[in-house]
Amino acid sequence: MVDWSTLDTVFLDMDGTLLDLHFDSHFWLEHLPWRYAEQYDLHPQQAKDQLLAMIMAERGSLNWYCTDYWSERLSVDINQLKAEVSDRIGYRPHVPDFLASLRKAGLHSVIVTNCHPDPLALKLSRTGLDRHVDAIVSSHELGKPKEDRAFWSDLARRIPYRQERTLMVDDSFPVLESARDAGIGQCLAILAPDSTQAPATGHPEIPGIRHFDEVLPTLQARPPLPSQ
């Protein structure tokens, strides 16, 4: 499923890959509509319908992920509302072991996320995730989402990497397709990003796993890179 012997860099999505997507799903589908309905004196379902229509219209763009954009568009403090349910932020299964194994194998681990820097800071403060990887890059720093093929060449100027010796792990098939089309050597899909939802159907061309324990044995069997 993953040929670890050919890799020296592993790019990792955060939400739905390392962290349980339940936090984000609950926020956008439940908590925000509830608080929005309170603020504007709407029926909860009416608020939800209005919000989903606006959100879906931005799908795949940087605005989709931008808390500044949504705070201004909706006249609410998105970061404050996220903090209200931050107790739901947590790791997906086997993630600490997986990250420790990447480090032990001498692989360069980089979180590559579409998460805006403000909620990113909240999630790092709750999890300490930044202590377990070598670097973190938000797509907002580069001005384009991971779905944009040009993102990957811009990323190379920030984090030099060899495409053919890089693995990208993500729960988004559009992102993985973008990475693959940009020349990333291997891609791996996470099929169970939200602990409260059934796993997604696999991709015909991209291998997928539910949890990292499916690839841990082969990763842990990989000898460390000589340079490490």
Relative strand content: 5-15%
Can you list the strand order of the major beta sheet? 3-2-1-4-5-6
The topology string of helices and strands comes to EHHHHHEHEHHEHEEH
Shape: globular
Number of strands: 6
Report the CATH C-level class of the largest domain: Alpha Beta
Tally of individual domains: 2
CATH topology of the largest domain: Rossmann fold
For the sheet with most strands, the description reads: 6 strands, parallel
Q: How many helices?
A: 10
- What CATH architecture of the largest domain would you give? 3-Layer(aba) Sandwich
Compute the average pLDDT: 95
What does this structure look like?
- It holds the Pfam family Hydrolase.
- InterPro entries: HAD-like_hydrolase_sf, HAD-like_sf, HAD-SF_hydro_IA, HAD_sf.
- This is Haloacid dehalogenase.
- Keywords: Metal-binding.
- One of its GO terms (cellular component) is cytosol.
- The chain has helices spanning 22-40, 44-56, 67-74, 78-84, 95-104, 117-127, 139-142, 150-158, 173-181, 216-220, and strands at 9-12, 108-113, 135-138, 166-170, 186-190, 208-209.
- The chain has ten helices and six strands; from the N terminus they run βαααααβαβααβαββα.
- The protein folds into two domains: 4-21 and 91-220, 3-Layer(aba) Sandwich (Rossmann fold); 23-87, no CATH class.
- A six-stranded parallel beta sheet has the order 3-2-1-4-5-6, with helices on both faces.
- It has 228 residues and is of the alpha/beta class.
- The two termini are 24 Å apart.
- The mean pLDDT is 95.
- It is globular and about 60 Å long.
- α1 packs across α2 (44-56).
